[in-house]
Structure formats: structure tokens, C-alpha cells
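pasting for the record
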Amino acid sequence: MERLIIGASIGNCVHVAGVLNFLRLAEEHGYKTKFLGPAVSIDYLLDAVAEADPDMVAVSYRLTPETGYNIVARLKDAVLERGLDSYSYIFGGTVPVANKVKELDFFSRIFNGEEEIEEIIAFLEGRDYDEKNIDYGDNLLDRLERKRPYPLIRHHFGLPSMVETIEGIKEIAEAKVLDIISIGPDQNAQEFFFRPEEMDEDEKGAGGVPIRTEEDLRALYEASRRGNFPLLRSYSGTQDLVQMAELLLKTIKNAWCAVPLTWYSILDGRSSRDLVTAIKENQNLMKLHGERDLPVEVNEAHHWSLRDAHDTIAVVMAYLAAYNAKKMGVKTYVAQYMFNTPNASSASMDLAKMFAKKKLIESLEDENFRVLTQVRAGLTSFPVDQYKAKGQLAYASFLGMALKPDIVHVVAYCEADHAAKPEDVIESCRIARQVIDKLIYGAPDFSADPLIKKRRDDLLREGEILLKAIKDMGKALKEDPLSNAENLAKAIKIGLLDAPHLKGNPEAAGRLSTKVINGACYAYDYTRERIITEEERIGKIIEEAKI
């Protein structure tokens, strides 16, 4: 039998967001709810209580503490007078109002907005909330289930010294503002952890924390064992990928594997691996995690957009990343969508690109392949001005919620000025959380916008043309051309997959020119000053390559 909660804002209070959010969360956990409205009179509320016989009555008041006290005092007297004191009454309001109302000793539970979502859920489920013993979930899927309908919050963190990073992780964990801390190792650790003799110690701490030993990793994990016990995650490195993966699983219980498909190679200079070798090693790492039923994220599509590839290539690479993960036996796939990349992308065109990616990626779902949606702001989108940067963070968080994410990767607003300190991480997560709270139960449906739909469909059509060209190029192969390392490397070499920033790269064509027009990134002919269609672009490449 469904339990019933009646909710209302009482007196002259018209603020209903808090009580509505509570009622919606209650519905997520098996309750039937009835909302009476704003500024409800005491008599109307109690008439409804007497008629409906609820399990709980949720009362909200968010104006001045003194007025709130007087109204609740009248409510208490009326409840006793009408013999309705057998019901459970709970209260929600601002901190000052809640503190004042406590003096009346009337409500069985008072919420002031400072509670963790886990605490509210525990209350609704009839469980005692013990901050010290609460089970947040020690893996990605368990944590997701415990926090629904809210997405998990992730943030990158790594300072140029181990001591600073350890203390920072402690501070972040105690703040309980996020669910996953992504450890950012320095470049030496990513490339040469197992080859310390090749490290350039003059670059110690460049780009992240200088992890040098297994004990360092264990110390980072131990630092996180407090507060809300956030999961840890780290990149797979750019060399010795299997060794690093095993070490990360053993030490920090790596929440999920993060690996590219084509990058961390000669393509970007973060490793000396040739492209074919890099693709094969990256695929092998996906396979390793797939065999162990561990989640995998393939960091691929946004690397092309960061190098100004046109939107069609970004969409295709998002699909190929997921396709290869599935081909390697991955069962839980974390699909990352980086917004504001290129930086000149408009909101509508950015969303169109993401909707196109999402449609293609989720077309791969079946009983053996589950897709989780992770959104984030673009790395290069943050201005130096810190006030503007906070606005950018809120804007990117708003756009990301349109994809109904499972994970929100928060990028610190200070990204363009300095590496995020603990206080920057905490503040950035709180900004993002406010946006999430406002949208979790009712974001606009941008997918219905005609302009966005048209651009999404155009990208899907052009994406199919590009995917067919890659398939056709490898049709003589015995292996699947979309997962064959040599075929994918060839697609980059001849320019089917290309980006302006790859000019001069020995593994790429580097001939593509692009331009952002009305917020969308197109292949562009600067000589004739016109957009190049994908049919035209591919036709020319195939003709020149004599395929």
C-alpha cells in the first residue's frame, strides 16, 4: 500500500520549490504525494489532513523567523484542538526559520537545506542516518543507485606536490560536495611511472601530482576515506597501460578506466607510440576491463574538437569510441560529452552535436552494453576573469543537464588562471550542484527545438557518410574495419579523420580547414569562402588517395 505525504507552504509564504523537490524525491522512493499549493491557510491544510489521513504532513515556510514562529505556533494549537496530533508533521525552511521553529517542539523532523541528499533519502526510507556509517557505495554503479535521481559529481584534482594533494583530498572529502575525485598525475607519472630513469625531474609536478610509487597511490586513497568517502579515478597513462591499470585497481580502486582510442600517441605528443600501436594497446586495455566487468570511458571525441575538427568528425569519433569499447567486451560504458568545444560553439549548435552523439552511442545499447552519460564544460571555455568564469561554469552545467546525465564532471572555474586548490574544487562543485538542484525535476526539452533537431539530423546524416567511407576503405579486411587499428590509422593518415591542429603531424593528413559559422563548426574552403559538405570532402580525399 502506497504511503501518502501531504505538502504545502503555509501562511503568507509562496515559496514552494523546497517542498516540491521534497515531494518529488518522496515519489522516487515509493510515496504518493499531494501538494496543496503556496500560502495555504492552517484550516485548509488541516481539513486536507483530516480527509486524506496521510502518513506524513510536510510544511514549508521560508520568510522571516519571527513570523514563521507565530504561524507554526498557531498550527500547533490548531492541530491539538482538532485532535490531529497523531500524524507525523515535518518542516522545511531556511536555517534561521528552522532554528526558531525548533523552539516549539512540534515537528518530528526539521530540514533547513543543509542536509545531504543521502540523509533525506534515509529519512524517507525509514532508516536512521548515521553520518559515520552511511554506505555511499564503493563502486560506480552502486553509488549511482544510491544517489538517484541526482547525478554523481566528479572533479579533477592534483597539485604539484604529494603533501598538498593528500591534504587537499582530505579537505574535499570532508566537504562532501562530490562523489568522484579524478586524480591528475603529472606528465612524468603518466608516461614514465614504470621507467623512472627516463623522467625529467625538472618537470616534476608539471600538469599534476608527482606520483612515483605504489605507496603514493595508497596514500591518496587513504586520504579519501573520510567525509562522504568519494571514489577515486585516474587516467590510464600513456605507456605501460596494463601495468598502470592493474596498479590503479589495486591501490585506489579505480572507479572506471579512462583511455583514448587514438590519442596519447604521436598524434598529440603525449607518448612516442605510433598510431597503430597506440590504438591496439588502448583497445587491449578496454578488453582487460571488459573481462572484469569494470566500467570504461573512452576519451576521444573531444580531443578532435579541441583541435578544431568539424562537428561531423566529433560525432563520428564519439560513436567509434563507444563502438570499439563494445567490440572489446566492455559492458558498462561511460560516454563523455564535453560542451563548449570549440569555444565559439553556440548553445543550440553545441546541444545539437551532443544529441547526435548521444543518439549514435545509445544505438549500441543492448542487454550486454549499458551506456552512462557524463557531461562536462570545455577545457578552453573558461575566461581568466574569475567572476565570468563562475558564470561559464553555471552555463555549462545548465547545458549539460539537457542530456539527463548520470555523472556531471565539474571543471573548476579557475581553470584559466591556476590549478584548482581544494577551496576552488569545493566552490565549483557547489555552483554546479545549485544548477543541478534547479533542473533535476524539470529542465526544458531542448531536443524539441526545430533548429537543434535540424542540425542534429544533418550531423547524423553526414556522420553516416563518413562512417561508410571508413568501412568501405577497409572492406577487403577480414576484421571489422571500424575496429581495425590499421584501418583507423589509415583514415587519419589520408584525412578522413582530420583536424586543423594536426598540420605537420607525421601520422595525420593535417589538411582540414574549419570555421565556426552561427555557432556550428564546419569543414570550410577559405579560398572559395564556403562550407564544404561531407560528400564533397570525402569524395576529394578518396580520389586523391586512389582508394
